[in-house]
Amino acid sequence: MDDNPQPAADRYFALPGHALITLEGRDAAAFAQAQFMNDVAMLEPGRWQWSGWLTPKGRVIALFALLKRSDEATWLVLPDADAAAMATALQRFVFRSKVRIQVRDDLHASGRFGAPAAASGADFTGDEEAGFELDAGSADAPRTLRLAGTPAPQDDAAVTRWHALDLQHGLPRLPASQVEHWTPQQLSLDRLRAYSVKKGCYPGQEIVARTHFLGQAKRGLVLLGADAALEPGHEVTAGSVAMGKLVAAGTDGARHLALAVMPLEREAASLDVDGAPVAEEPLRDGLAR
């Protein structure tokens, strides 16, 4: 008998911690282009991309899915960040722009382990009455993310599995302790096509571009597995040598997982965290948008 029964592919479950911020108004797209690290101007209405907001020093404040509904409506689906705090922080940069920033508590995020009915890749579908669907999966791990007015039921096991798949695909689910510590390159966000080095200015752009064009990205994400629980912020060591730091952690039900920022070039060595052995595992592909 299976000790870890899998949720039904057609059953939606609530994704707690996910929140929606909307930017609406004549300057919504221009505001998003000036603030966020991916190229919103190249995004057609009806499509979405991974993106983020950086400090002036190029450190990641928040990662999110950015949906372009129209030139006057850009939506941010945040899996971890404090939406109210981020909306307040963004408001400080509105100045004379014609944009209204709002946390939408009336639309609830839910997930399902199955391919969307109509959405595919970077194309999302739906409307506010019927709800919206995003393709949040890969070929070997199909998933649907939905935004709808009716909340889905709670399912802790399904949420744990969803979180683990994010980590396995290299999508760092940053807890508060890891916010404003890491650059997009250190988090290997190029794997998700989540930032641009060609667009105009945005907070942190100079650091991101300099690192890219001077080839100074020396660290990136590594997926680690262990039998013992792993905690963000703890060091990865090889003997007495510090090799990196855990930035996100979870479990797939059978094994504990973590994403760590580690040197891109390093010799093979036995690794441990707090004296417990950890093993490097391959990252899945397929979440780039």
From TrEMBL:
Gene3D superfamilies: 2.40.30.160, Probable tRNA modification gtpase trme, domain 1. Keywords: Transit peptide. One of its GO terms (biological process) is iron-sulfur cluster assembly. InterPro entries: TrmE/GcvT-like, YgfZ/GCV_T_CS, YgfZ/GcvT. PANTHER family: TRANSFERASE CAF17, MITOCHONDRIAL-RELATED. This is Folate-binding protein. It comes from Lysobacter soli. The lineage of its organism: Bacteria, Pseudomonadati, Pseudomonadota, Gammaproteobacteria, Lysobacterales.
